[in-house]
Amino acid sequence: NAGCGPKDFPELKNDAFLLACRGQETPHVPVWCMRQAGRYLPEFRESRAGKDFFATCRSPAACCELTLQPLRRFPFDAAIIFSDILVIPQAMGMDVQMVAGKGPTFPEPLKEPEDLLLLQSKVDVIKELDYVFKAITLTRHKLEGKVPLIGFTGAPWTLMAYMIEGGASTTQSKAKRWLYRHPEASHQLLKMLTDIIVEYLLGQVAAGAQALQVFESHAGCLGPVEFQEFSLPYLRDIARKVKDQLKESGQDVPMIVFAKDGHYSLEDLSQSHYEVVGLDWTIDPRSARERTGGKVSLQGNMDPCALYAPKERISEIVKKMLEGFGTRGYIANLGHGLYPDMDPENVGAFVEAVHTHSRHLLNLK
Ligand SMILES: Cc1c2[nH]c(c1CCC(=O)O)Cc1[nH]c(c(CCC(=O)O)c1C)Cc1[nH]c(c(CCC(=O)O)c1C)Cc1[nH]c(c(C)c1CCC(=O)O)C2
After folding, report:
1. In which pathway does it act (predicted)?
2. Which protein residue has the closest C-alpha to ligand 1 atom 14?
3. Of the four listed, 3, 102, 158, 165, which is most buried by Cβ atoms within 10 Å?
4. Residue 3 pLDDT level (bands cut at 50, 70, 90)
5. Which amino acid residue places its CA nearest to atom 3 of ligand 1?
6. ipTM of the complex
């Protein structure tokens, strides 16, 4: 561990992202992309070639390299640690494999409430997920203070859905069956996940994460009523518990909640102790501002597919997006992750358009 402890990190040189999380003034609108470390980069494909996905996640050196790759190409204002949300079900004792062309797969998903007994009830998060903490500490050093490092987790409902579906699903009907047929067991599982997530996020901050994003990627298959019961209380709990604990040690780390396709929940999410609410592209920037009433910063939300447009068109779309959100309390991003067939040059055009147009808008003030 010599020379790599979570202390004496290099001084941060670009704090635009952290300032924007807190609604403070910045010289330009900060920008990063979900899945910025990914298969659209040839160097990523080369590093990952022939290696097992979760073995890569367990190698701090590999995670560090993959996290840094996009920053060598583009002037992103934040880095997000390379890892996966499914490391938590693994830490709970479930087998998860990444199957090429199919995505994450659980050979033995949860079927009935009795299966909860097969899960590790007391997970030693610090020990089981130590490899993630090591990756964060190493990456924070290697970033040399260029930009802040974001840690992340899946939200309880999204993780529960994977653990029951056993992989990708369009309807999430197996997982939703639990909500309607086994509400008590569902809450038991969601609570178990919440406790692990809180410890996991605190461990990430101790290791050097400077902001935290919670991915509720499967919000879209819930309606407002189910969301209120099975997602929102746990999202709130996570933010409150993490913040309370951090406060005790005099720390304060901005938190982002991203509930994909959860447009119905925007008002609630803006009052859930998160500094930032992430948005997908189905929400109009101006209406998002009105509905959140200036209570939070907003992040998002260009349709990732707009990156298939020519560069000039990308620039126009970005300009409209910036005019809609305004330049204060705003972090530019896509409405979801980049796809493997996207052109890195257009990602560069997106980043440049955000910086150029936002500087221009800020100078007009
Ligand atoms: C749902 C989810 C997962 N993982 C994640 C989510 C939440 C975000 C979202 O809604 O997309 C989170 C995640 N996964 C990954 C990151 C890394 C950081 C970044 O955004 O750059 C992050 C933040 C790396 C990854 N995670 C994965 C990849 C691609 C596979 C590879 O590198 O071999 C990457 C770069 C694999 C993964 N892991 C998961 C899926 C659905 C897939 C895609 C499977 C496929 O496309 O074949 C589960």
Report:
1. Porphyrin-containing compound metabolism; protoporphyrin-IX biosynthesis; coproporphyrinogen-III from 5-aminolevulinate: step 4/4
2. 84
3. 158
4. very low
5. 85
6. 0.93
